[in-house]
């Protein structure tokens, strides 16, 4: 199976093939509109603006599985992201990233690259880990998505090459993107 075999839904109901992004470097991210990491919408937008001309795209998939931090529907999420954060990269319909209802694309992504251990060397990472441990301990096991703003980097051939946790440095992510462009 290849990443290009998956279909995704836009908030308006239109179905899109991942084939649309063939030959592009992709950063695929599960997002949430009311999360402590929501500031990353702006970071992702800056990366998109800086590298889109070189064949890079950010793909955002809203998810409400972590503390109900994206209660809006897909269309409301798009409107909020555009209005509040200036997002112009593609935002898809809400999905699940863990459990029995996991979207097939995310099931594929999370089994292509092993997650790194969550670092607990900063206040933010300690808070993230303790929140997951308290509310979603099963998400610390296996390949589960642990929280909003987990990112997967995909090369131009469709190979998933890296997984970034929500508290990973945007500078490290940018360096990895540059290496693929």
UniProtKB/TrEMBL annotation:
CDD domains: GSH_Peroxidase
Oxidoreductase is among the record's keywords: yes
Active site: 35
A GO term for molecular function: peroxidase activity
GO terms classed as biological process: cellular response to oxidative stress
Record's keyword terms, sorted: Oxidoreductase, Peroxidase
Signal peptide: none
Gene3D superfamilies reported for this sequence: Glutaredoxin (3.40.30.10)
One Pfam family recorded for the sequence: GSHPx
Membership in a protein family: Belongs to the glutathione peroxidase family.
Listed name of the protein: Glutathione peroxidase
Organism: Ureibacillus endophyticus
């Amino acid at each position: 199976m290849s990443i290009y075999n998956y279909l995704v839904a836009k908030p308006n109901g239109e179905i899109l093939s991942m084939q649309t992004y063939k030959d592009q470097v992709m950063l695929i991210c599960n997002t949430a509109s009311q999360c402590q990491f929501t500031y990353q919408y702006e970071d992702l937008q800056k990366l998109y603006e800086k590298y889109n001309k070189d064949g890079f795209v950010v793909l955002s998939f809203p998810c409400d599985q972590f503390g109900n931090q994206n209660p809006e529907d897909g269309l409301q999420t798009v409107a909020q992201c555009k209005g509040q954060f200036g997002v112009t990269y593609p935002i898809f319909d809400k999905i699940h990233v863990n459990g029995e209802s996991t979207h097939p694309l995310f099931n594929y992504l999370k089994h292509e690259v092993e997650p790194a251990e969550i670092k607990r060397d900063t206040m933010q990472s300690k808070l993230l880990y303790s929140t997951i441990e308290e509310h979603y301990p099963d998400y610390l096991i296996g390949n589960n998505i642990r929280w909003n703003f987990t990112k997967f980097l995909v090369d131009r051939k469709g190979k998933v090459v890296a997984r970034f946790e929500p508290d990973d440095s945007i500078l490290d992510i940018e360096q990895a993107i540059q290496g693929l462009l």
